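During the no-cost extension, the postdoctoral fellow (Dr. R.K.) reprocessed legacy sequence entries with the updated structure-token encoder. One reprocessed record is reproduced below for audit purposes.
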Amino acid sequence: MQQLGPDNAIWDDGEWISWDEINEQIRYKEWRAKYPNADLSLVSIFEDLICTAEQYHMHTGKHLQVYGDIGELYGAITHGIKLHRNYAQGSDGRLGNDLVEVKTITPFKSNDRVTLNLKRNFSMVFLVKITSDFEVRGKLIPRKALPRVKGDKLVLEWANIGAD
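Re-encoded structure tokens follow.
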């Protein structure tokens, strides 16, 4: 560990406090303001993952297969969705007593639509859109607010779903 002193810390209340510690506290306050429901330990993972996906795309022109995970993490940090284990059947997580299905629109998709399997067990849908600029937005929709369709599949279009 590096010795703390006037070159890398400030003296406060009888002890040296590193600039790294101060910057971390500022970052956590910014995250708490932006994501009030978040487990803050997930925010850095989310931000690193979206940054990695963007950098990979910039360098290779290809996309990593991480957008579903990014969508689920976004739901966890913005709404407090408690995610199920990977590949759990029925839904992706739980928000209180509600089972939540997370559907992600990826940045390389030619349209802003996803297909929802109505046979799955969920009472809410969290629709996530990752833009070509790697900005992430989401809309939480109760199942009862979804349009009625014949059959087991429903196509959701971002523009046709109300704002969250």
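The domain at 18-160 is CATH 3.40.1350 (Trna Endonuclease; Chain: A, domain 1). DSSP finds three helices and nine strands in the chain. The remaining legacy entries will be reprocessed before the final report is submitted.
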